[in-house]
Design brief:
The complex is a heterotrimer of chains A (222), B (435) and C (168). Chain A has 222 residues and is α+β, with helices and mostly antiparallel strands. Chain A is 20% helix and 15% strand. Chain A has a single domain, classed as Alpha-Beta Plaits (2-Layer Sandwich). In chain A, the strands form four sheets. In chain A, strands 8-1-10-9 form a four-stranded mixed sheet. A two-stranded antiparallel sheet of chain A has the order 2-3. In chain A, strands 4-5 form a two-stranded antiparallel sheet. Chain B is globular, with a radius of gyration of 23 Å. Chains in contact: A-B, A-C, B-C. At the B-C interface, helix 1, helix 6, helix 7, helix 9 and helix 16 of B face strand 2, helix 3 and helix 4 of C.
Chain lengths: 222, 435, 168
């Protein structure tokens, strides 16, 4: 995934779309006050400078699907592991809720269901049938909308072709009005995301930790 | 054996066996109170399981809170028995003899309590048994690479070893008690003493086994707290990923273990009228050990903090600053006082090491060590690498209740233990008493 | 024939044992009963022990079993590890260590139970009831040798020598 920070306006449409697509529990300001806010993708705002020369940087942070994820070796039940496509996968059934993975994630992208989630009526009618409802006591995080990836692969297989570049669009990619987020196959050298990742503007978060994240942030080199 | 020793031993037995029969009103009141507090703690835990772990104050990013602090604290306390029994047994220090059983009992109970906390803090505690390797329909074994599994194996090993280590030297005493008891007590002690007759073959085997187990249990104890330390050190979180954590935690565990032993010892001495057997020299020696561990702890703390501060790495300085100058500073400086300054003042000279001073120092060390665990876990979690996720932890009544109830449970276990078993191993005491 | 002799101190027990050994009795027939271990008696009566050997063997066996178990379980369900080794010595070394120690601890305890004879069921030779301050020596001898052996015991300082029948 490549996120263009120079395009991001901080509108948080991606956040809302992710909530809708993935059956996320609701967060309200009271919850956020208690540190229980729940956003698989969140927009971090960093302010630089003094008024009137303030610059704001909006950074959408989501699970970086690290190649060498620190969350994976520490899960005692293999609830988080690496699948063969390179995704860091969370298996809700296996999770017993030790939360070690959440502590070990340097990007703080993991969220825990402190209670079994509830939606006030009629919001439960809005749930996405492709995505499971998680019980209380399990950890979850951005999955790169794995349900959309699976659907695209199924459709492609039914048609007897390979998945085209840009065919899979996670909810955040689809909803961004500035088209700041690009999603694709990093293994495919022809894909748009590969060329963006190879560009001179590509950086990664906390790269020196050696986690090999798969989300590239594009920003003007200063 | 000459008659003087025999008379002394008779007095010892009379003193030690008096608490085993009958129960004063104060005892029953204490037992009832601690039982109620313990039951309240269990009720809170039940409520937590029913409602969800959200009733605790943990949140993102501080996903570990009081429960993990208590876990590390109690496992640390459990090193009391190991130090006194094992190390002093191996070095043949005679003065340990009156205190070994008290220490070993602390170890077993502290371990039992400490081992509950990994289950209490789980999000889905009812499936905690998934951590145990057994063939199952999930087609899945637990992940042995995870430090939490290392925790499990280490604690199970240490718990079984400690129970054996507590039980073995009790067998001769149990046999003697069976001889002098009637009714259900006689059946109980006879069952537990598994046919001990006091033959030299049995003594030989017992002493051999104790000597070997002392070395083994020491090796296990060091590994247990190292493994608990590695729960944190193996994470990449700032200030956790430190190589010193293994030795730091082991030293801290021995430190808090001696402190717990001193507190329990002075209470037991007073309540069970053991003033003739647990002497000021014991408190002096244990006080010296406490002082030594305080210096060692301080050395580790200085080494850890100095290298962090000098290295000036931004993520780590964030956490460091919060501990020394920021929101956690009051706790940090209280901890330094409790763990180093007060023990230094109270324990550094022989004249200061009275029973009262040593006990006060031990009590402050217990407070300081609990704070130390808190300060290891919380600041790092509160200040993650991506600063936008910073957040602070506030314990709720559930966590505070459960924490308090574990202390009550410890007291309750100890009350029951002292009612059933003599607090001093008579045969060890007779066998070359205090030096 | 089982004799029990009642002594007041360790030195007389030791001289009794020496006398009996000179007469040809060995550690299998002589037992000393007391409420605390008697160094002098233990020095004179050899009780060979296999405790260390069994403990070390058990430790090795448990260690190898742990390695085999972890190896098997980590290959049984092949999680995609993304290039990291499926079975990693260093990551699971602690497990092996703890199992090793567990093996030696339990072996020591079991050997204690076996070598002390505590787990023996059935025919147990009767043992004297212990009194504080007294040491007892139990001798298993032929019926014909009972009287001379008793004399030796009295000579060494026994206060009382009893004959007890072995329980049928």
């Amino acid at each position: 995934m490549a996120i263009d920070l120079d395009r991001c306006t901080g509108c948080e449409a991606c956040v809302a779309a992710c909530h809708a697509e993935n059956n996320l529990p609701l967060s309200d300001p009271a919850e956020a006050e208690k540190g229980r806010a729940f956003h698989w993708i969140r927009v971090d705002r960093y302010y630089e400078g003094e008024f009137p020369d303030i610059r704001v940087k909006h950074i959408p942070v989501l699970c970086q699907q690290c190649e060498d994820a620190p969350c994976e070796p520490v899960c005692p039940t293999y609830a988080t592991y690496h699948n063969s496509e390179g995704l860091n996968v969370q298996i809700y059934n296996r999770c017993i809720g030790t939360r070690y993975c959440g502590n070990n994630c340097p990007y703080s992208v993991r969220f825990f269901n402190w209670f079994a989630p509830e939606w006030p009526q009629p919001l439960e009618l809005q749930h996405n049938p492709d995505v499971s409802i998680r019980p209380g006591g399990v950890m979850e995080k951005c999955t790169f909308c794995i349900q959309r990836i699976q659907r695209a692969k199924r459709d492609a297989k039914a048609d007897g072709r390979a998945v085209a570049d840009g065919e899979v669009q996670p909810a955040c990619v689809q909803s961004c009005p500035a088209e700041a987020i690009t999603f694709g196959d990093l293994n495919d050298p022809e894909s748009k995301v590969s060329s963006l990742a190879a560009s001179g503007r590509a950086t990664r978060l906390l790269e020196d930790l050696g986690t090999k994240p798969k989300v590239f942030y594009l920003q003007r080199a200063k | 054996m000459d008659t003087a020793v025999a008379t002394r031993a008779d007095n010892l037995r009379a003193t030690l066996w008096r608490p085993l029969t009958g129960a004063s009103r104060a005892y029953i009141a204490a037992l009832a109170l601690t039982f109620l507090l313990g039951a309240w703690g269990l009720a809170c835990w039940g409520y937590q399981i029913f409602r969800g772990i959200g009733v605790a104050g943990i949140r993102r990013p501080t996903m570990w809170g009081f429960y993990l602090v208590n876990f590390v604290f109690w496992i640390g306390i459990s090193h009391a028995g190991t130090l006194i029994s094992a190390i002093l047994r191996l070095t043949d220090a005679g003065w340990r003899k009156p205190v070994t059983r008290i220490a070993e009992a602390i170890t077993v109970f502290a371990l039992m309590i400490g081992a509950m906390f990994p289950i209490i803090h789980l999000g889905r505690p009812l499936v905690f048994f998934w951590l145990i390797p057994y063939p199952n329909s999930r087609l899945l074994w637990p992940n042995f690479r995870s430090p939490l599994l290392w925790d499990l194996t280490a604690i199970v090993t240490y718990l079984s070893g400690s129970i054996i280590y507590l039980y073995l030297p009790m067998i001769p005493d149990l046999a003697e008690l069976a001889q002098h008891s009637t009714g259900w007590r006689e059946r109980f002690y006879r069952l537990l003493s598994i046919g001990w007759t006091g033959s030299d073959r049995q003594w030989h085997a017992l002493e051999r086994a104790m000597h070997r187990m002392a070395g083994m249990i020491l090796a296990v104890a060091v590994s247990v707290h190292t493994v608990v330390a590695w729960d944190f050190a193996m994470a990449v979180a700032p200030l956790w990923h430190s190589t010193i954590f293994g030795p730091y935690f082991v030293a801290g565990a021995i430190f808090s273990g001696i402190a717990a032993l001193l507190v329990v010892l002075s209470i037991i001495r007073r309540l069970l009228h053991l003033e003739a057997y647990v002497l000021p020299v014991h408190f002096d020696n244990l006080g010296k050990l406490l002082f030594l561990m305080s210096l060692l702890w301080f050395y580790f703390t200085v080494a850890e903090n100095l290298t962090t501060w000098y290295g000036n790495s931004p993520a780590e300085m964030n956490v460091f600053g919060s501990r020394v100058r920021g929101p956690f500073a009051p706790y940090f400086w209280v901890m330094i006082c409790c763990n180093f300054v007060l023990p230094f003042l109270l324990l550094s000279s022989r004249r200061m090491r009275t029973i009262r001073n040593v006990t006060i120092a031990a009590f402050t060390v217990l407070i300081g060590m609990w704070l130390e665990r808190y300060l290891i876990i919380l600041p790092t979690l509160s200040y993650p690498r991506l600063a936008a996720a910073t957040g602070f932890y506030e314990p709720t009544w559930v966590e505070i209740s459960i924490t308090a109830s574990t202390f009550a449970a410890m007291v309750m276990f100890y009350l029951i233990f002292c009612k059933l078993f003599p607090a001093i191993a008579v045969w060890e005491y007779k066998n070359g008493s205090h030096r | 024939m089982v004799l029990t002799a009642d002594f007041a101190d360790a030195q007389s027990v030791a001289s009794a044992i020496r006398a009996l050994k000179a007469r040809g009795y060995g550690a299998d027939e002589i037992d000393v009963f007391s409420t605390a271990p008697i160094q002098e008696a233990q020095a004179l009566l050899e009780r060979p022990s296999r405790m260390s050997l069994v403990a070390i063997t058990s430790a090795v066996v448990f260690c190898l079993s742990a390695i085999a178990f972890v190896h098997y379980t980590q290959h049984d369900y092949r999680i995609v590890t993304g290039g990291m080794p499926i079975f990693s010595w260093w990551s699971t070394g602690v497990i092996f260590y703890e199992f090793t120690m567990f093996g030696s601890l339990t072996a020591t305890f079991v050997m204690f139970l076996l070598e002390s004879g505590l787990l023996q069921r059935g025919r147990a030779i009767p043992a004297p009831r212990l009194e504080e301050g007294r040491i007892y020596l139990r001798l298993i001898c032929q019926a014909g040798d009972a009287v001379p052996a008793a004399e030796y015991l009295y000579e060494a300082g026994a206060a009382k020598v009893d004959e007890i029948e072995e329980r049928p």
